[in-house]
Structure formats: structure tokens, C-alpha cells
Amino acid sequence: MKLYDTPSELLNNLNKRGFTIGFNMYGVYCKGLDRHFKPEKFKITEFHRFDNDSDPGAQSIVYALETKDNYKGVLVDAYGMYSDPLSFEMIQKLKTH
């Protein structure tokens, strides 16, 4: 797996590979499609963690997601004390990666 220096470098690469939809953590919701995807309806294709020791607020994880009906997008979340609250199902899905 290629390593990226910044989240924006990774997001540009994912966009070129067709991961163009923006998801959020609330049940994996896509505002552009106005659809919620349950954890069993998508897979995590890859993920990248960005650590910034000097600024804990800049720590993030970028997930490349693909739904069972072939939508591809990204989900970006902080981790640690700045992470978004998750459902139990989402925690289980993300924990496997």
C-alpha cells in the first residue's frame, strides 16, 4: 500500500480512482445521494491513518468505502478525543481494519 504524506494527497489519489462520494460517520450517510448505508452494505477497501504528534487535532483516518451497489467514496474521521460518536455496528466494522 502506498504511503501518503497528507490527507489531501490521499484524497486526490482516491478521487482519481473513482472514490468521489463523501460519506460521514452517521450510519455512513451520503448527502449527495441522500442515502444511509448500514455497515453490512459496504466494505472498507483501504484506510490510512495520519498522525500529527505536534497537533492532536490534526490526527485523522481516511477510509475508502465501496457499497454493495458499487458506490465508491471516502469517509474521513478524527481519532482520539476528537472522533465522532459511532454506533456499535460501525465500531465493529471499523475495528476489523
Explain what the structure shows.
The chain has 97 residues and is α+β, with helices and mostly antiparallel strands. The chain has one domain. 19% of the residues lie in helices and 33% in strands. The protein has two helices and six strands, in the order H-E-E-E-E-E-E-H. Strand 1 and strand 2 form a beta hairpin. The two termini are 14 Å apart. The mean pLDDT is 80.
Question: Which labels suit this protein?
Answer:
97 residues, six-stranded mixed β-sheet, 2 helices
Question: What's the tally of helices?
Answer: 2
Overall shape: it is globular
Helix percentage: 10-25%
Q: Strand percentage, roughly?
A: 25-35%
| Structural class designation | alpha+beta
Could you give a short description of this structure?
With about 100 residues, the protein is α+β, with helices and mostly antiparallel strands. It has two helices and six strands.
Compile the SSE list and pairings:
Elements: H1 7-16, E1 21-24, E2 29-30, E3 35-36, E4 42-50, E5 60-67, E6 72-78, H2 88-95
Parallel strand pairs: 1-6
Antiparallel strand pairs: 1-2, 2-3, 4-5, 5-6
